[in-house]
Amino acid sequence: MIYAGNFKTNHTRSSTIDYIKELNFGLKDKKAEDKVYIFPPLTAIDFYRGNFTIGVQNAYPIESGAVTGEVGIEQLEEFNIKTILIGHSERRELLNETQEFVSKKFNFFKERGFEIIYCIGEPLEVRERGEKAVIEYLKEQFIGIDIDYSNFMVAYEPIWAIGTGRSATVEEITTTHNELKKLINRPILYGGSVKKANIAEISSIDSVDGVLVGGASLNSDSFLELVLH
Ligand code: PEP
Q1: How far apart are alpha carbons 58 and 88 in whole angstroms?
Q2: Dist CA 226 CA 228 (whole Å)
């Protein structure tokens, strides 16, 4: 299983250092085959040692240059960062990232060999129209994306399940992941209110290769409870 923790706009450099210490202590009991990723805010990016991979929640598709407020390859290389989240619904919605821009970003980081966790997910009104509508919607989020790229995974994150406490049901996750597996031969993570109470049932679904976790990753103890469940 893959366990990825997305801190979003939480934690400081100092609290991330403490978190990593606690995480490293707990990860001594991790199963060898499990993989852990942490996505801290950009200001807390650094060289951290441990049995996990540090990635960034975002970067601009540029080597370096004039893009006020963004970071590019030059800033990531300083810390040997080679893993990035692309397409998170918060960036698509709050920051108006279009599919055209998201796919441009995907291709830019793909060309530089980055490991990409590519996020997709439908809004509630689409889910309410049924599974067929969901898959049609999700397919649009692959426009411009090279699904044959060998260094990416998909994170299926229904928007209505993110940060709401209401996870998708086992049946919804199973059906959607199975449909996605027919289209894409890559690992698929589930994201959306994953927590201690549902990790066992979600991780036991065959087509779930891992989880992308927001809220329950913010505290090292609660994230470790998921990883070590
Ligand atoms: C996320 O934003 O990627 C996420 C899954 O958040 P949460 O776990 O808080 O629903």
Answers
A1: 9
A2: 6
Reported pTM? 0.97
Using the atom order of ligand 1, give the atom closest to the CA of residue 164.
10
Which residue owns the Cα nearest ligand 1 atom 4? 214
Asked whether the beta carbons of 145 and 184 are under 8 A apart, the reply is: no
pLDDT tens string 150-202: 999 999 999 999 999 889 999 999 999 999 999 999 999 999 999 999 999 99
- DSSP codes, 56-99: BS---SSSSSS-TT---HHHHHTTT--EEEE--HHHHHHS---H
If you ran DSSP here, which 8-state letter would residue 169 be given?
A: P
Topology adopted by domain 2-227? TIM Barrel (3.20.20)
- Taking the C-alpha atoms of residue 145 and residue 143, their distance in angstroms, rounded to an integer, is 6
Mutate to test the pocket of ligand 1, among 90, 162, 166, 225 (most ligand atoms within 8 A of CB): 162
Q: DSSP letter at 223?
A: H
Residue 153 near residue 190, CB atoms below 8 Å: no
For ligand 1, the distance from its centroid to the CA atom of residue 29, given in whole angstroms, is 24
Catalytic residue numbers, as ranges: 88, 157
**Per-domain residue ranges of the chain:** 2-227
pLDDT at residue 80 in the model: 97
Distance 165 CA to ligand 1 centre (A): 9
